[in-house]
């Protein structure tokens, strides 16, 4: 019931919006709850800053398949309990490796460490012993360190890019707060800022930022068109609140919130 209510609320708000810095609704599916068809964007600001190549999901899948095979291979009599056959797991592993290579092939600063990860993963898969497993863990730790140190090269963000994103968010918030009555987002955070083009594709470069909209506000499931006490009746809704970006008056349900609550979140 709460999920349905939240979905209806987001649909209602999305139908009211028409602004270049707010994610637009392009259609709806006749489902229960209704399926919202939003404009196609290139990921959110948080992922674009922290994982611009989308390595996390590929890396986790690669690790999961290696460990999955390692754990289950000795117990041949239990293979039928798995979703896929051993042969299928081998194929999936190879597919994952190819995806992994494809993500880093154009980044010379990562290719060396990526090759080590893949080669060590293959050895781990072939021998399945503790030593190879430890070497595998060391190799992917070094890769992640190299990845983290290369983020500024992979996803450059110029001063003009920072100013453009800040300006886009400000314009989007001003639009929401200028509605009658004003709409308070209440969940403004970098994962809810969506990009028209990812930083890895050059959105943060000065020449692009000067001419194009980069950021749009989205995810209005916790939004409200009135000011007052923040009532979160459902446990699931409270789980969505991230204190890292949330104003104290929203975390404290006994206090009133207002458009200034969004300004606080933007500052963080």
TrEMBL record:
Gene3D superfamilies: Transferase(Phosphotransferase) domain 1. Residues 1-268 form the Protein kinase domain. It comes from the Eukaryota. Signal peptide: none annotated. InterPro entries: Kinase-like_dom_sf, Prot_kinase_dom, Ser-Thr/Tyr_kinase_cat_dom, Ser/Thr_kinase_AS, Ser/Thr_Kinases-Pseudokinases, Tyr_kinase_cat_dom. Keywords: ATP-binding, Nucleotide-binding. GO terms for molecular function: ATP binding; protein serine/threonine kinase activity; protein tyrosine kinase activity. SUPFAM superfamilies: Protein kinase-like (PK-like). This is Protein kinase domain-containing protein. It comes from Paramoeba aestuarina.
